[in-house]
Amino acid sequence: VRAGVPNWLLTLTERAPALVLPILVTELLSPTTNAFWYAVWMMGWVVLIVPISIGQTLFAEATQRPDAISPAVRRAVRSSLVLGLIAAGGLAIVAEVALGLLGPAYADAGATPLRVLVASVIPVSVIQVYYAVCRARSALGEAVATGAAAGITALAVTLVGGVVAGLVGMAVGWLAVQALAGIWAALRIRSLMADGSG
Question: Does the model's pTM come out above 0.85?
């Protein structure tokens, strides 16, 4: 219970915004806006699975070899950025074609927001490494607080962006909050690594 509940809370705080956002878009903006947004969101999420998966792998590796966490962190950041940027670049190139499979209106409305959204793979790579380090260093309270603050802020800013500037505003809002959270995560990784023995 001591290990499982805080880890579950961290997973909940980092994943809940992605699940709640489409509901809020439907209620606060419109079902049509959400139809376009959801297609963009799910395609973008395919790219974001890369840093999420690498973060989980880092957590497993760090718990098995806590004395060698520094090279594992560097490797995770490098792998996440390289693979994530390849995936993001590929999706950005084929954005119209991919969204066009759902219909021309999806391509027209969603190609630019999708290109903006996939850029968040850069800060999300750092954030996921931060979460893995927090899990390995038993700093789950900090990680849960960070995840909750970033998630609530991302929801609010993304929705305001949607009201002000449509789908592009939503994507920019999401990216901006992830960038700020990524900067915080990078600073905290350095501190957590300095406090540990890895």
Answer: yes
